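FORM 7B: Structural annotation worksheet

SECTION A. Query
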Amino acid sequence: MVAADASVRTAGPDDAPAVGRVQALVWQQAYDGVVPPQVHASFDPRAFETAWQDSLRTPPSGVYRLLVACAGDEVVGFASIGPSQDPDAGQTTGEISALGIHPGHRRQGHGSRLINAAVDLLREAGAEHVATWCLVEHEDLREFLTGAGLVPDGAYRDRVVSPDGHTAREVRLVAALTDSPS
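SECTION B. Predicted structure
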């Protein structure tokens, strides 16, 4: 039997080191010039690995999941999902709380596969809407997300990204997961 060259699956604790490496690369690139240098320097694969191992070993109850995109056996991307934590979200709103593709593996369909798998899992869990947040500066990511069917809903937040109170603005993108009546 031949294995698929590209796939998405639910992550397990053994995936934490690979997810940590990918997340560190993605966050270093994404937050370059957005966060102060001391915060940027803290984007360490081992720190992310430890956080993912803890989360995967004792996951919160509910629809929380970490998905990984693979090229062959190599983890090249990840997405985490769960219920929306936004105060204005209803109980049927799920969230893609993190999404990242290794810079060397972008534009190969991994992001689309992750989004599709995330939406499928959220829909199966009863979500009627999905939301995600994107840094204002990340026009490429926002373009990808809008191409996947998410649209800005006008909400924004200023996330504190450093110990001294420095903030970065994010915009929320949403999509309905149910068919609208004709």
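SECTION C. Observations
The helical segments are 16-30, 37-40, 45-57, 110-124, 139-147. The first helix runs from residue 16 to 30.

SECTION D. Sign-off
Analyst initials: ____
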